[in-house]
Amino acid sequence: MAGKFITFEGPEGSGKSTQILLLAEKLEAAGLNVRCTREPGGTATGEAIRNILQHDAANEPLCDRAELLLFTASRAQLMNRIILPAVEQGGWVLCDRFIDSTLAYQGFARGMDIATLDNINAFAIADRKPDLTILLNLNIEQGFRRLEKRYENGSGTLDRFEREARDFHIRVYDGYQNLAAREPERFCVIDADQPIEAVAEQVWNAVKNRFGI
Ligand SMILES: Nc1ncnc2c1ncn2[C@@H]1O[C@H](COP(=O)(O)OP(=O)(O)OP(=O)(O)O)[C@@H](O)[C@H]1O
Ligand SMILES: [Mg+2]
Predict the structure, then answer these.
(1) Which residues have their alpha-adjacent CB atom under 5 A from ion ligand 2?
(2) Residue 152, exposed/middle/buried by CB under 10 A (0-12, 13-18, 19+)?
(3) CA 81 to each of CA 43, 88, 204: distance values in angstroms, whole numbers, following the listed order
(4) In testing the pocket of ligand 1, which one of 146, 157, 162 has its CB within 8 Å of the most ligand atoms?
């Protein structure tokens, strides 16, 4: 079977990282070759960019356009170095955030022009869109409650995006609904306000239905 490229999207704390690992385990158990990666990051260049984007590593305010181009530079490198080669060799690539995060955060939440972002995204990924995008839908209050719990348990602190005002995150949430409605054939929307195993089961069913594993 040819390789596949699946992305996970959703607001902060919706369970993307949790669900990617669970899906990877199931695909591996089915004998498939799986590669998990994340955005921004996934390559040495991308991880350096991630450090600037999430943790103000350059120690100066980042203008919106520079932010956008750093995200897409990381994406272009990840696509070229990791995702395309793996899929061409029959691998299943699972990516934590991708083009739709740019549209939701920089587009719908920050107000940049969606058509411009579509063009920049298309350029960065050489027009190779994901075969399937899982959108984990979780209202922002729930998401933040989960993140607070994660940080109470001592792992990390809120990053630059997590510190944005609540209405920013509402625009992210609404933006994702818009994106899923725009490309219903690529998106599968899953209610993430369920126990981890129940969400995982729905993700697995979506992947099985889509690709006939
Ligand atoms: N279905 C769930 N029910 C309850 N808690 C969950 C569920 N899924 C994940 N969590 C917990 O919520 C927190 C956030 O989950 P996770 O890190 O997977 O989300 P994320 O979407 O990757 O977040 P981020 O946007 O910050 O990367 C974690 O502590 C995780 O264990
Ligand atoms: Mg995560």
Answers:
(1) 16-17
(2) exposed
(3) 8, 12, 27
(4) 146
> Which own/partner contact pairs does 205-210 have at CB distance under 8 Å and 24+ positions apart?
206/132, 206/134, 207/6, 207/23, 207/26, 207/27, 207/132, 210/131, 210/132
- pTM of the predicted model, to two decimals? 0.93
For the chain, the structural domain boundaries read 4-211
Q: Closest Cα to residue 206, out of 136, 134, 138?
A: 134
Contact between 106 and 112 under an 8 Å Cβ cutoff? The reply is yes
Amino acid identity, residue 114?
Answer: I
| Closest C-alpha residue for ligand 1 atom 9 | 15
Phi-psi group of 39: left, alpha or beta (phi > 0 → left; psi -120 to 50 → alpha; rest → beta): beta
Residue 213, helix vs strand vs coil: coil
pLDDT tens per residue across span 72-95 = 999 999 999 999 999 999 999 999
Class of the 4-211 domain? alpha beta
Q: Please give the number of the atom of ligand 1 that sits closest to the Cα of 18.
A: 18
In this model, does residue 161 exceed pLDDT 80?
Answer: no
Structure-token pair, residue 154: 């001592």
106 close to 20: Cβ distance less than 8 angstroms = no
Our CA dihedral for 96, 4, 72, 74, rounded to 10 degrees, sits at 70
